[in-house]
Structure formats: structure tokens, C-alpha cells
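Ligand-bound model needed. flavin-adenine dinucleotide.
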Amino acid sequence: MTDSNHYGFILPEELILLRDQIRRFMREEVKPIEDKLPHDATGCSPEDLEHLRAIAEDMGLTRMAVPAEYGGNPASALTQIILAEESAKCRLGGYAPALNAFKGGPPNVIWGGTPAQKEKYGVPCVEGDANMFVAITEPTGGSDPRNNITTRAEKRGDKWYLNGRKMWITGAGLATYGIIFARTNDGEEGHPPQVTAFIVEPDFPGITFNEIKVIRALSPWEIVLEDCEVPDENVLGEVGQGFGVAQNWLVNARVPYAAGCIGIAQEALDMACGWVKQRPTRDGMLMDKQAIQWMIADSEVELKAARLLVYEAAARIDAGEPGKVDASICKLYGTETAGRVVDRAIQMFGGMGVAQEMPLERWYRELRVKRIGEGPSEVHRMVIARDKLRNTDGGVYFG
Ligand SMILES: Cc1cc2nc3c(=O)[nH]c(=O)nc-3n(C[C@H](O)[C@H](O)[C@H](O)COP(=O)(O)OP(=O)(O)OC[C@H]3O[C@@H](n4cnc5c(N)ncnc54)[C@H](O)[C@@H]3O)c2cc1C
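Prediction:
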């Protein structure tokens, strides 16, 4: 059976059913709780969260990125991006992941750790409320972390000592622990430095956190490391292989990231359609004006294209194909499309579009961040262009 509404990809029937089930859950259970929250709140009361999680648990929607042996309910990448798209329509589902109703678990990279690390750091995220940060970016620049990481880790006796600063790290000051990437070797002439991943707890000696206020409510943090003491057993993966450990996870995370942006933008467009259908003008309804219809048409086409890119990338991940360029395409087009669509939705609403009683202005701010986090647009353009140039022979005329 195929899906006949505006989600044009031919999804298997069970995924269509799942998607509709998530939509109902968001509409009937999550939205009423959201409606009671202050405009910029990033979470609800523990009781409400527990209530939502219990329902999500019953529906089999929790811990989809967690291996079964650690209490997970592992699902395909395609399933996870359907959840990401639908759940992003409400804050409690989507973009405050530490608080989300679906308990996605820790970033997958932790499941590549030692059995002791998985038990100590992975399981509490699954069973309890532990949450974590990932710190790569530094004040010297995040676009080229492989070369720019200057935070150093030096081994003395059986401990590592980290010195440096990390910048813009989401949720760091509130997390139970985090993964910090630090240089352990400068590498050979002409080669990038060797970087190692360390699991760090906030009460380790020598670590401080400073909140950075930004355009959205969920803050990133500066992390200052002054001889921060980390036990040797907290090295994640091999020494010098930090990016090797994290690479697949970093790349694959861009696909649900794009899906979440598409979900927000779809909701904004659907809201705008509802608005223009009931908004009169001097000579007819707003929906009958060409200027409005063109905004709706462009938004619908772009969202459909963005969604197909995301579905294809997820299908490739599920097929075990290398997905770096596909993930960059999704991240670039998904985030930029979503920004444009929400901007147009605000325009169709007029003054109401920027009123705080609507979610649009919050989405607008959130989506602005999405073009910078997880690699800014320019970096993804670079990845896509280099791949294209490498693999194109000049076509019929120049080949
Ligand atoms: C709210 C928020 C949350 C974040 N959360 C995290 C987190 O949890 N963990 C983490 O590690 N990082 C996080 N980041 C950091 C984010 O990944 C970086 O901001 C991003 O990688 C860009 O790095 P930068 O800010 O240092 O900009 P820069 O690297 O200084 O770049 C500045 C601008 O120049 C462009 N640019 C850079 N190099 C080139 C080039 N060669 N050619 C053309 N243009 C170029 C960039 O695209 C960008 O537009 C977060 C950022 C924000 C804003």
C-alpha cells in the first residue's frame, strides 16, 4: 500500500501506520501539555514527562537508538527519522533531546565503548534521566575541527590531564557527563593532529562551565579545562582515534536532524494554510491570492524534495552504504528549506506570525541555529562540491 497524502515517498505500510500513530500521540497527548508551558520553556514538569514517557513506552516509541542488550528497542534509520520528523512538531518530542518524551538514549557513540563504559554511562541514560553533551567545537573555530582542536590531553601516570576551552556545547552545564575531544598528538608534518575522545564527569577536578545566552532558549555552554583530571578507563575508543569512533555517529545524526527541521517546517506550512483559508481580505480570502499561493506551492515542493532526500539517506544507512555526502545533502537542504518555509509562514500570518502566542517565532529562532550547528551550511556545501568534482568526468561535452 502507498501513502497518498503529501508524504509522497512510498513508505511501507507499517511505517505509515507508525507515523500516523506518532502524529496522534503528539496532537492528543503532547500538545495539550505544551500548551500549558511558558513560550520558551525547554521542558515540562517531571510528572508530565513521566506521563508522556509511559504512553510512548507502551506504544514502543522509546529507546529506538539503543541496542537491545542495553534495554533498547532498536529501529531502522528510516523509522527513526519518521519519529524525528513527527516528534519535532512539539518541543517535548523534538529539540530538547535531554527532556524528550521518547528517551532516545545517549549518542550512539557510547555503545562503541568498553562494557564498563556502556554500563556506567550508557545504561543510566536508558533507565534513568542521565544525559550528556558532546564537546568538539572550540573558540578557534568549529568548521574544521579535525585541524583546529587545540585542547590538549596529556597522560601523567594513570591519569589524563585536559587543558583548553570548548565553546557552544549544547546542554553541557546541565549534563550528567560528556564526551570531550582533545588532541593527544600533533601528528606528522602535513597530517592532522591525533584526537582522542574522553568521557568526562562535571565533578572531575579542573572543569568549569559557563552558560552562553543565544537566540534560542536551550543554551550552549563554554567549558574551561584546567588540568582536568580524567581516569585512563574513560578514554572512549582507541587513543588517537577520536574521530574514527565518532565519525559514523556524527554523520548519521545529520539525517534525523534534518528530518526534525522538516517536521517543524511542515507544521508551520500546515498552520499557515489553515490561517489563509479563514482570513478575509477586502476582495476575497487570503488563500485565493496568487502571492500567497506561490508561497504555499514553493514551500510544499521544497519540503517534499527535502523529505525525499532524508528518506533516501535513511534507506542508504539501513542498507549499510557510506552516507557522508547524502547526510550533508540532507543537512544542508533540510535546514535551509525549513528556514525558508517558516519565514514564508510568518509572512502569511502577518503580525500574528511574530506573536509569542504562536510557535512560529520560536521555530524561526531555532531553525536559524540549525544552519550553524552540526556543521554550518558552507561546510556541507564544501563536502558536496568536492565529492561532485571528484566523481564527475565532465559529462558528454567535456568528458
Ligand atoms: C546553539 C549552538 C549549539 C551548538 N552545540 C554544539 C555542541 O553540542 N557540540 C559542539 O561540539 N559544537 C556545538 N556547536 C558549535 C557548532 O558546531 C559550530 O558553531 C559550527 O561548527 C561552526 O563553528 P564556528 O562557530 O566556530 O564558526 P567558524 O568555524 O569560525 O565559521 C564561521 C563562518 O565561516 C564559515 N566558514 C568556515 N570555514 C569556511 C571555509 N573554508 N569556506 C567558507 N566558509 C567557511 C562557516 O560556515 C561559518 O558560517 C553549537 C553551536 C551553536 C550555535
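The chain has three domains: 13-107, 132-242, 253-398.
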